[in-house]
Design a protein that fits this description.
single chain, seven-stranded mixed beta sheet, alpha/beta, about 800 residues, elongated
């Protein structure tokens, strides 16, 4: 079943040919009794009201049969609105229908194809369904007629006038209501009939219309109709306001268009160029002056031709304009001339940085090759070292020594490949990648380009930036690097790329293979003192506005800051503490204190407070089960304590201290080595059956892993079991095997420097790491005695203080 497009007929507006049937229906309502049991015809998506005529199409074999039976009889039918869950072809139930409906008389019926009929039904009287008599072949229900009083009080009269007034405003604004509907409304004198007529002509939800039908109190019904009209009027007023604004904008746009066309016509008559033509000519001149490569120039001309055919008001116009600006402003053939004076370059490097001989030699070698061969590809260097050793500032110094521009971008946390290669121009707000942006910022095609924190690149669903760097950092490929935004190749072969990292492990092997690795280790105390005197103190004195002659630092004061207020491989915290001292002095000068300030040991304690670090190895004492190891971290080398405690038990090995899998395996191997040597050191051979061994590495919040603590664990376990304290001034590192061999490990220089900083007197190293001692500074070599071992027994004899009785037994 379906209703026609809204077609509601009030009795006063029915055509003359229907007058007789309507009059007959009205008389029938007044004079005849309605049957108690009546056929029920569903009216979906609409509601029939008393004294309102409504046409709709009835479909379905069951419902067409009902209409035919009713037309042959008294023509009376109960019209009820079904709920949303109603299925006309499925089984019926009382829950499918609203309980209140209207008795209607079928005034006209017209048969249609495909088993359908169109009916015109005139509403007579409301009813309420008491119960359902049957469902097949069509539903019959027992009903109770609802008689409503039409007492027109002052309140009812006021509500009627308000309804008519609001309805007039709604008709004026609603495009779907003709003016005749309002005329029909003002001629209605009955309150209930007015309410039904108004609601039936509004575009409302079926539930809202049904609510009006089910409201039996006349005053309450008129109030609800008033509320409905008020809301409908507000919606129509808002829609009308929006429509007016849209029309005003369209009129404004059309007016501007006509004015622009008239202006163009006037300019053509005067022989002048319009703004767009002047811009196109300017761009064409810039393209010719830019000396673009042929392929790039052809692309620029093609885009310029597209731009000339597009209206400036088009959304594509600024996109093409920005693209042409990028092509024109990039330094395709603009480069700086390198400073090939090797002595001068060496002087510049020495002025900015202390030591770092490996890096300086590599830069001077590059200059020498450039001097002998004019055309050379830019090197790809990777500076690896702990924080604060000067990797980033070294890049600036290299650019200054070569007389090149310097550009730096940080890659830390980058997860989008488009950050490197750029976005395609199909995206809104697209831009080139950070490589091309850096080249444009430098203004030359051969800058020193620093890619900071290359070991901290991430990856997610947007791509892998490290994979995009493979082309950038490959001298064989980067001569034709194609950014997604530009769409044309740019030559990066003359750029000197320098990357920095704290560790090499996170860098993909393919990317690591494209870079020349230069390790920058941590500094010794003497080197830090020299750096502070030559670079850090003058810099902080100037930045804090102190006259250079008014402050001086004693060497002992600098050493105290290094040893008791910092613990680092670099000099970043050292500079921070020197800055704190300078600020304290600057404050006293600002408060009127005169004279020069000499910073000694007492002044350091005064300005920086109590010391923050103590050398545990020096200040402690020998303790059973506690051995000193050496570890490598991202921030340089560190000393590592390994503690072992023995308890009565069943041979369990307890490992704590946030150890990784490899370190846990080293602990198990260490226990096997101790069991093999138990008898030699006066330990019961069956200790592993009666004792629990708890091995702990302090600083449990810090993850630890790697095999280099193997010898340290052996010494710690055997010391606890034999009750022989290890020597606290001896530190060690090395991987062990089940047979007791000591294997080489990495990070020797950083580990030795950590031992030196912490006052270690002797260091045990694997024999195969002897070659790494070449890189150890002479200052550290003079203060530390090195033991090179091949077997774990050698480690034990050096690290443990043997008892006289035990020595005699072993001999």
């Amino acid at each position: 079943m379906m209703t026609d497009q809204l077609w509601l007929i009030e009795t006063d507006s029915i055509s003359k040919e229907d007058d007789q049937s309507v009059a007959q229906a009205t008389a029938e309502k007044e004079e005849s009794d309605f049957p108690e049991v009546i056929p029920i015809l569903p009216l979906k998506d609409n509601v029939l009201y008393p004294e309102v005529a409504l046409p709709w199409v009835v479909q379905g074999e069951k419902w067409v049969q009902l209409v035919n039976q009713v037309v042959l009889g008294n023509r009376l039918v109960g019209v009820v609105t079904p709920k949303k869950s109603f299925d006309p072809e499925g089984p019926l139930s009382p829950e499918d229908f609203y309980p209140v409906g209207v008795v209607g008389r079928i005034s006209r019926m017209l048969k249609l194809p495909e088993n359908a009929v169109q009916v015109l039904v005139f509403g007579l009287n409301k009813f309420e369904i008491l119960d359902w008599v049957r469902w097949e072949p069509y539903p019959l229900a027992r009903i109770r007629l609802i008689q409503e009083e039409e007492n027109i009080t002052d309140e009812v009269e006021a509500l009627m006038r308000n309804v008519v007034s609001l309805f007039q405003q709604v008709v004026e604004l609603a495009p779907y209501l003709p003016k005749e509907v309002y005329i029909a409304a003002i001629n209605i004198k009955k309150p209930s009939r007015l309410a039904h007529f108004v609601v039936s002509n509004l575009n409302l939800e079926v539930a809202t219309k049904q609510e009006i039908l089910s409201t039996f109190d006349l005053v309450e019904r008129l109030k609800k109709v008033t509320a409905i009209l008020t809301r409908e009027l507000e919606i129509l007023q808002i829609g009308n306001k929006i429509q007016s604004q849209v029309q005003e904008e369209m009129a404004k746009t059309q007016r501007e268009y006509f004015l622009r066309e008239q202006l163009k016509a006037i300019q053509r008559e005067l022989g002048e160029l319009d703004e767009k033509s002047a811009e196109i000519n300017q761009l064409r001149e810039q393209i010719q002056k830019a000396s673009l490569p042929p392929e790039v120039e052809a692309e620029a001309e093609r885009e310029l031709e597209r731009l000339s055919r597009i209206s400036p008001a088009s959304a594509e116009y600024p996109v093409i304009r920005n693209y042409l600006d990028w092509l024109i402003e990039l330094p395709w053939n603009k480069s700086t001339e390198d400073n090939l004076d090797i002595d001068q370059a060496k002087q510049v490097l020495d002025e900015d940085h202390y030591d770092l001989e490996k890096v300086k030699e590599r830069i001077l070698e590059y200059l020498a090759v450039c001097k002998l061969r004019k055309s050379i590809k830019g090197p790809i260097l990777c500076f690896v070292g702990p924080p604060g050793v000067g990797k980033t500032s070294l890049g600036k110094s290299i650019a200054r020594s070569l007389s090149r521009s310097f550009v730096r971008i940080s890659l830390g946390g980058i997860r989008d490949e488009a950050e490197i290669r750029g976005h395609r121009r199909t995206y809104v707000g697209a831009l080139p990648g950070r490589i091309i942006q850096g080249i444009r910022k430098a203004g030359t095609n051969n800058p020193v380009f620093m890619l900071d924190e290359v070991d901290k690149i991430g990856a997610d669903f947007r791509g892998d930036p490290a994979a995009a760097l493979l082309e950038v950092l490959d001298p064989e490929q980067n001569s034709a690097f194609e950014d997604h935004y530009l769409g044309v190749p740019f030559d990066l072969s003359r750029v000197m790329f320098i990357t920095t990292a704290n560790v090499l492990d996170p860098i993909p092997p393919a990317l690591l293979d494209r870079m020349e690795i230069i390790e920058i280790p941590g500094y010794t105390d003497a080197e830090k003192v020299a750096i502070a005197q030559k670079y850090l103190i003058p810099k902080q004195v100037q930045e804090n506005g102190i006259p250079p002659d008014n402050i001086s630092f004693q060497k002992r004061a600098i050493e105290k800051i290094i040893r008791e207020y910092t613990r680092e491989a670099g000099v970043r915290n050292l500079e921070r503490n020197i800055a704190t001292v300078c600020r304290k002095v600057a404050r006293e000068i600002a408060q009127g204190k005169n004279g020069s300030f000499t910073i000694g040991v007492k002044e350091v304690e005064k300005f920086l407070g109590p010391r923050k670090f103590i050398r545990e190895v020096i200040s402690g004492k020998d303790r059973e089960g506690v051995s000193v190891g050496l570890a490598w971290t991202e921030s340089g080398g560190e000393i590592l304590f390994v503690e072992t405690a023995i308890f009565p038990g069943k041979g369990n090995l307890i490992l704590t201290g946030n150890m990784g899998e490899i370190m846990q395996e080293s602990a198990r191997i260490a226990l096997s080595c101790v069991r093999e040597r138990a008898r030699d050191w006066g330990i019961s051979p069956d200790f592993y059956q009666k004792k629990d061994i708890h091995l702990h590495v302090p600083a449990g919040a810090i993850p630890k892993d790697g095999p280099s603590a193997g010898v340290t664990m052996v010494v710690s376990m055997l010391s606890a079991l034999a009750k022989i304290p290890p020597r606290r001034e001896v530190a060690m590192t090395g991987e062990i095997t089940l047979t007791g061999r000591v294997l080489p490990v990495g990070g020797i220089k950083e580990k030795v420097l950590a031992a030196y900083r912490n006052g270690i007197k002797e260091v045990i190293l694997p024999k195969e790491n002897e070659k790494d001692l070449i890189e150890i500074p002479q200052e550290a070599k003079k203060k530390i005695k090195f033991h090179l071992v091949e077997e774990v027994d050698q480690v034990l004899s050096i690290a443990l203080r043997k008892q006289p009785a035990l020595e005699k037994a072993q001999s």
